[in-house]
Amino acid sequence: MMFDHPDNNPVRKLTEDECWQLLERTQHGRLVGVVAGYPDIFPINIAADQRSIVFRTAPGTKLAEVAVNENVLIEADGILSDEAWSVVLRGTAALLQTSGEISEAERLDLQPWVPGPKEQFVRVTPTEVTGRHFAFGPYRDAELGEGSEGG
Amino acid sequence: MMFDHPDNNPVRKLTEDECWQLLERTQHGRLVGVVAGYPDIFPINIAADQRSIVFRTAPGTKLAEVAVNENVLIEADGILSDEAWSVVLRGTAALLQTSGEISEAERLDLQPWVPGPKEQFVRVTPTEVTGRHFAFGPYRDAELGEGSEGG
C-alpha cells in the first residue's frame, strides 16, 4: 500500500503534500474545462513544476481553446491491483509568454499527445489540490458487509 | 499498433464502433460533469452495456450529485509505450430505477471506487461518442521535424 488507512476506511483523503508527491511522478493526466456550459476533457502529458502543472498544446486546437481558461481541472489517477489514487487540481490555465518562462518549461521534457510545429506551453496554477487513496480488498469487503457481491 | 495510421498522421480519429470496442474492454474511466458552472471529475469503474455506460455510486456523495445530470462525459484512455487512445462519450446520466434495470446492471460485475451500503447504478446514454488513437515514435518525429526535442 502506498498510504496507510489507520481507521480502516477504504477511502483516505490525501494531504496537499501527498497529492504533489503523486503528481511529481505522474506523466499523464487529463485537462477538464467548460466551454459555453459544456464540459470537455483531453488527455495530456503533464509535468509538475514548482507546485503547478505544465503541459504542451498547439494553437487552433480544441485543447488550446480549453487550455486558456480561468476554471480548469487537471486530473491524474493510478490503479493497481489492490489500491488506487486520484488527484484533482483546480486552477487557472495560462499560456507561457516570456522567453524565460518558455525556456524553463522546455527543460521539463514534456511531449504533447498531438504533436505540431507551433507548440505552446500552458501552466495551470492551482487554487485547490485534493486527492483520495482507495484501498480495495479487505477494506472493501468489510465495508460492504455480507450483502456485497464479489468482483 | 492497435490501429493503423495509413496517412502517417500521428492522430487517427476512431469510428464509433472502434470506440465501443475499446470501451468494452475497459473497466476504468472518469465521469465529468458541470455543477453550477464548475467542472468536476471522478474516477469510476465502468461497464459498457448495450452501447451505454453503467457505473455505481451511492446517494449523498458528490459523485451522485454529478451523476444525475443531463450533460456528462465519460472518458477512458489507455497509454502504451508507442501508442495511446482516448474515448469521450457525451451523454445523459440517469439512475436505474426499476428492479429489472437494476438486476440487469448487477450482472455487469461492477465495483464502485467508494464502496457503501446503499449503492445505485447509473446509466449514461450517449448522444456522441468520439475517440482518437495516437501513434508515438516515428510518426511523432516525422511530424515534429528537426527542431523537435526527444523524450
TrEMBL record, chains A, B:
Pfam families, per the entry: Pyridox_ox_2 (PF12900)
Q: What name is this protein filed under?
A: Pyridoxamine 5'-phosphate oxidase family protein
Q: What is the lineage of its organism?
A: Bacteria, Bacillati, Actinomycetota, Actinomycetes, Micrococcales
The species is Nesterenkonia sedimenti
UniProt xrefs under InterPro entries: Pyridox_Oxase-rel (IPR024747), Split_barrel_FMN-bd (IPR012349)
